[in-house]
Write a structure and sequence with these properties.
TIM Barrel; single chain; about 40% helix; eight-stranded parallel beta barrel; 8 strands; binds 2-phosphoglycolic acid
């Protein structure tokens, strides 16, 4: 199975979000084999987009969450509220939030612990800066981010985790990593997750994100060790997103033969 996640970021109003969600649905209609598709609109559009997605094969996700279950936290939205809003997935640790919203490793870890008390699937973003990569420390850096995010997190038989490897230098720059970079990193990510859970197995998907578009998606998706893609900019362009879904479908059909 391949997973395609659209992170709409701070784009689209409610009406535009609904129209775009309908466009995504049109592009999956009539296809039996489909990747898992998750779209993550802004908080304001979640409930209207949810109505569009009910009983379809496109799931709803949120882009962020607060660090507490409930309480006096003005402006925050808790994971319980996201659950209530119909989200099945939530992105945490995105580099934009790490950089601009003080989402430190400690905060990401607290969020992981809250998510595991719900049925939501965490989409944990990790990734190094250009300087860290140039210094040859990318693998170590990412392994440390995973270790910090998963420290003390308990899982059960039905737990699922998506890790998105998103090198910061590839996000929104048009300069994606190579599939070889992602494959090499995914080995380390899988090891780090295994270590963090003491060998206890978890349903783990490792996806790539950073300047994925309709043209380059196939080269990532066709790699067996890359379980999917997390798409920002191209996820709000319907033709690009359609092409990415089609690439996922093609790979799944080819690999099941
Ligand atoms: P991008 O963003 O596809 O626009 O590079 C990816 C992300 O931030 O998740």
């Amino acid at each position: 199975m391949k997973t395609i996640i659209g992170n709409w970021k701070m784009h689209l109003g409610i009406r535009e979000s609904v129209a775009h969600a309908r466009g995504v649905l049109r592009s999956v209609m009539g296809h039996e084999v489909l990747p898992e598709i998750v779209i993550c609109p802004s908080f304001t559009a979640l409930s209207e987009v949810r109505k569009v997605l009910v009983r379809t094969r496109v799931a709803l996700g949120a882009q962020a969450m607060g660090t507490e279950r409930f309480g006096a936290f003005t402006g925050d939205v808790s994971v319980a509220q996201l659950d209530d809003a119909g989200c099945g997935f939530v992105i945490i640790g995105h580099s934009e939030r790490r950089a601009m919203n003080a989402e430190s490793d400690t905060v990401v870890n607290a969020k992981m612990k809250l998510i595991t008390q719900t049925s939501l699937v965490p989409v944990l973003c990790v990734g190094e800066s250009k300087d860290v990569r140039s210094a040859g420390k990318a693998e170590v850096f990412v392994a440390q981010q995973i270790e910090a995010a998963l420290r003390g997190v308990t899982i059960n038989a039905s737990s699922r985790l998506i890790v998105a490897y998103e090198p910061i230098w590839a996000i929104g720059t048009g300069l994606s990593a190579t599939p070889a970079d992602a494959i090499a990193m995914n080995v380390g990510i899988r090891e780090a997750v295994k270590k963090a859970f003491g060998g206890k197995s978890i349903a783990l998907s490792v996806v790539y994100g950073g300047s994925v578009n309709g043209e380059n998606a196939y080269q990532f998706l066709r790699e067996p060790s890359i379980d999917g893609v997390l798409v920002g900019g191209a996820s709000i362009k319907i033709h690009d997103f359609e092409a990415i879904i089609a690439a996922g479908r093609d790979v799944m059909i080819a690999q099941s033969v």
